[in-house]
Amino acid sequence: DAGVTQSPTHLIKTRGQQVTLRCSPKSGHDTVSWYQQALGQGPQFIFQYYEEEERQRGNFPDRFSGHQFPNYSSELNVNALLLGDSALYLCASSSGRGYTFGSGTRLTVV
Amino acid sequence: QQQVKQSPQSLIVQKGGISIINCAYENTAFDYFPWYQQFPGKGPALLIAIRPDVSEKKEGRFTISFNKSAKQFSLHIMDSQPGDSATYFCAPKRENNDMRFGAGTRLTVKP
Fold this sequence. Notes:
The complex is a heterodimer.
Chain A: E1 5-7, E2 10-13, E3 19-24, E4 31-37, E5 44-50, E6 53-57, E7 64-68, E8 74-78, E9 87-94, E10 99-101, E11 105-109
Parallel strand pairs in A: 2-11
Antiparallel strand pairs in A: 1-3, 3-8, 4-5, 4-9, 5-6, 7-8, 9-10, 9-11
Chain B: E1 4-7, E2 10-14, E3 19-25, E4 33-38, E5 45-50, E6 56-59, E7 62-67, E8 72-77, E9 86-90, E10 105-110
Parallel strand pairs in B: 2-10
Antiparallel strand pairs in B: 1-3, 3-8, 4-5, 4-9, 6-7, 7-8, 9-10
């Protein structure tokens, strides 16, 4: 199954720490978007990467940064973690309008 | 960022019944109107989508109805099954921009 792969699946971090989440897009997809989904809420758009550049950004602080590699995989970095950053982080890849989501990384900040 | 309003928040339907979920949007530049289905512990999965040049699209038991003048679109699930129990999100978008998700509707189909 060449779907979207995210790692790790679960992560526990302490306030103030930094975290890196990883995403491998579906085969043939060149665009990667990251979303934050708090419990019981809809996904909130963080940013989108295309051709190794940040193409769009949602309403998230600069503590959230990312990167896309030449093989289209992507990383999401969050610095100075806050308790409110606890959420499911979703990666979605696309090559047009249809998006394929991974199962997400569950981040818990304690 | 309240561009998309989804209703109801939760819905309970008997097996075999019709489930209807609505989505109202503000941005007239949206040109792609998908519905996503999410099961616990999984990411959202595209269920069905419509372009603004048609008013209805049907795929199996799932139908999207689109009302451009009212800036609304809805998801109809016919013959609802317990396996349809999930959270549903509308997520309209415009070209070269990302999706804006609604808050979600938790559907429970009782056997």
